[in-house]
Amino acid sequence: ANEDDDCPIEEVRLTVPTTDDASLPALTFRTWFLGIISCVVLSFVNKFFGYRSNQLSISSVSAQIIVLPIGRLMAATLPSKPIQVPFTKWSFSLNPGPFNLKEHVLITIFANSGAGGVYAIHIVTIVRAFYHKGIHIIAAFMLAQTTQ
Predict the structure, then answer these.
(1) Deepest in the core among 2, 8, 18, 34, taking most CB within 10 A?
(2) Number of CB atoms found within 10 A of residue 26's CB
């Protein structure tokens, strides 16, 4: 093995391969479904609990732990029959095989993108709470989109 490709951290080197297994599917139905759900739920929960006097934050590690058994359950129960996309030659399977590391990592990335929240919402909240002014919804949306 080429030592230039090895990680200097022994624990990582022993658990993570330095090569990619191209046979493992990554962008599966399970990845998109669990990823979007975990992103939305973490975003909502963290924003909801962020307005408390004692703020509570839930990290993407929580989603990472929760989606593993759910992903394995989906792999055991979803049908593997291909689904044809209407008016195209494309098809996909709800269950392309066992739940794998690539799916798990991508779901964690989805969850992490939602865990941080939209920082511009603090500006909208401050304007409404302290200055007692309203911001038009389109202006608030544009502010949130341009500051991401």
Answers:
(1) 34
(2) 14
